[in-house]
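[Discussion] Sanity-checking designs against the backbone

I'm trying to build intuition for which residues belong where. Below is a C-alpha cell string of 245 positions. I'd appreciate it if someone posts a full sequence so I can compare it with mine line by line.
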C-alpha cells in the first residue's frame, strides 16, 4: 500500500485549479442561421468560456492576431454590458484563429434569454465582421448570491466589519449590533450564519477572577474585539480601527 506524505498532500491541494468549462460553437458570417444558444446558470462567475469557430461561405475563417474583438448585449433588466479585447484581454481574445469569450457574472446576474453581438474590428474601428449568440441564463434557486456562496470565514468577516455598537440589555446581557449586509430576511435560515451566531454567543466574551482578585475578560479573536474596564469600572469594548464604545 502506498501512502502520500504530508508534503505531497499539501502540494496536491495547492495545485488544484479553478474549474473552467469550454463550449465550442460554429458560426457563419454569411449563412442565415439560428443563433447558437449558450446555456449557463445564474450567477456563474467566469466559469464558462466560449470558443467561436467562424465560417465564411462554408470555409473556415481564420481570425488574424491583432484583430479587436468586442461583444455586447442587453440583459432582461435593461442593463447593458460590453467587453473588448483592448480593455479586457483576459475575457476576450484570439486563440489560433478562433475567438475565446468569457461569460461574466454581470452577464448572468439576471436570468432570462437574450442575444449577444460579437464584432471583429480593425485598429481604425472598421467592422470586419459580426455574428450573434443567444445567452440562456437559467434561474438560480435564490436571488441572494452572497448567501448561496457564503463561507464561515466570510460570514465572520461580514459580522465583524458591520459592528455598529454594544449595549447592556434590561436583563443584563451584553448585546452586539451588526449590519452584515448579507440580506438574509427575517424568517430565513442559513446554517453558516447560525453557526457564527452560536459562536458569537458562546465565545464573544468570558470573564473570570484571577488569584489576585482581578476581573479578566477573554474575547473571541475572530471578531477582533478588545474588552477592558475604564477608571469607573465600566465595561469598554473596542472594535475596528477607530470605533470605540
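Best answer:
Here's mine. Compare freely.
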Amino acid at each position: 500500500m502506498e501512502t502520500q506524505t504530508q508534503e505531497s498532500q499539501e502540494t496536491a491541494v495547492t495545485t488544484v485549479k479553478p474549474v473552467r468549462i469550454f463550449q465550442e460553437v460554429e458560426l457563419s458570417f454569411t449563412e442565415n442561421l439560428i443563433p447558437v444558444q449558450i446555456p449557463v446558470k445564474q450567477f456563474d462567475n467566469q466559469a464558462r468560456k466560449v470558443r467561436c469557430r467562424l465560417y465564411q461561405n462554408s470555409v473556415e475563417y481564420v481570425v488574424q492576431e491583432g484583430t479587436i474583438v468586442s461583444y455586447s448585449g442587453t440583459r432582461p433588466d435593461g442593463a447593458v454590458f460590453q467587453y473588448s479585447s483592448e480593455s479586457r484581454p483576459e475575457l476576450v481574445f484570439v486563440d489560433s484563429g478562433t475567438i475565446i469569450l468569457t461569460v461574466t457574472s454581470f452577464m448572468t446576474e439576471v436570468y432570462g434569454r437574450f442575444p449577444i453581438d460579437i464584432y471583429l474590428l480593425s485598429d481604425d474601428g472598421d467592422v470586419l465582421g459580426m455574428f450573434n449568440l443567444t445567452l440562456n441564463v437559467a434561474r438560480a434557486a435564490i436571488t441572494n448570491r452572497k448567501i448561496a456562496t457564503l463561507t464561515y470565514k466570510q460570514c465572520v468577516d461580514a459580522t465583524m466589519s458591520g459592528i455598529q455598537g454594544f449595549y447592556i440589555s434590561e436583563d443584563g446581557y451584553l448585546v452586539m449590533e451588526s449590519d452584515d449586509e448579507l440580506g438574509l430576511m427575517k424568517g430565513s435560515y442559513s446554517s453558516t450564519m447560525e453557526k457564527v451566531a452560536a459562536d458569537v454567543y458562546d465565545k464573544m466574551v468570558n470573564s473570570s477572577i484571577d488569584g489576585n482578585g482581578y476581573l479578566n475578560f477573554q474575547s473571541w479573536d475572530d471578531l477582533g474585539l478588545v474588552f477592558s474596564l475604564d477608571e469607573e469600572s465600566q465595561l469598554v469594548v473596542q472594535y475596528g480601527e477607530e470605533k470605540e464604545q
